[in-house]
Amino acid sequence: MTNSILSKFFHLIKFIKESILFVPELTIAWWDLTKRIFISLYRYWNSKLFFDKIFFIFLFLQLIFSVLPWFSYEISFFENRESISLGPKLNSVFILLALLNFFFLGFWKSSWTRIWFFACQMVSIVFVIWGYLDPKRYFYDFVKPEEVGLGLPFYLFLGSVMGAFLFGYLTFKKEDEVLGRI
């Protein structure tokens, strides 16, 4: 039994030694991969039209603001007041739509992506307005609506949805003009 434990100990030491010797090679490989990815993204970014760049930024902002909590309320525990932040009940819908829009329209252009984009943006806008009008049903249901305050990310999300809608339209219009000249 001692021989088995001693053997496993030496195998462990050998594994750790080889792992430590492998770290520099692994670091160089990851650095090279990361560098290639950023260079290709930079080249891709430079090939985009001006409106397309702004459109891409709005899609990214829409994704970021869909993840952040939109609402806050205060709760009292004895003498202490604590502020709680929360997202809407339909948060997964907003995140999924924003994520799919970001990847489909940021990196892939096709005839159906335009229809997809405008449909998703309209669904997002309808759900946001509907939730604003009836927050107990669509945004939160365990607190009183008068105790909840809208946070800055809610307005920034709504602004990014509107901005993406506008610059998506301008981008598609410009692409059609460029393709019409060919």
Quick summary:
The chain is mainly α and 182 residues long.
Mind summarizing the main beta sheet? 3 strands, antiparallel
> What share of the residues does DSSP label as strand, in percent?
5-15%
Individual helix count: 6
**Low-confidence runs of at least 5 consecutive residues:** none
Percent helix, as a range, is over 70%
Helix and strand succession? Answer: HHEEHHHEH
Radius of gyration: 25 Å
3D shape? flat
Tally the beta strands: 3
The class by helix and strand makeup works out as mainly alpha
- How far the N terminus sits from the C terminus, by CA atoms, comes to 79 Å
Mean pLDDT: 82
Spatial strand sequence of the major β-sheet: 2-1-3
* Overall tally of domains: 2
Keywords: Membrane, Transmembrane, Transmembrane helix
Structure report:
Keywords: Membrane, Transmembrane, Transmembrane helix. The chain crosses the membrane at residues 54-72, 92-108, 115-133, 153-172. The chain contains six helices and three strands, in the order ααββαααβα. The protein is mainly alpha-helical and 182 residues long. It folds into two domains: 1-47; 49-181, no CATH class. It has a three-stranded antiparallel beta sheet. The chain is flat. The chain starts with a helix and ends with a helix. The relative contact order is 0.12. The mean pLDDT is 82.
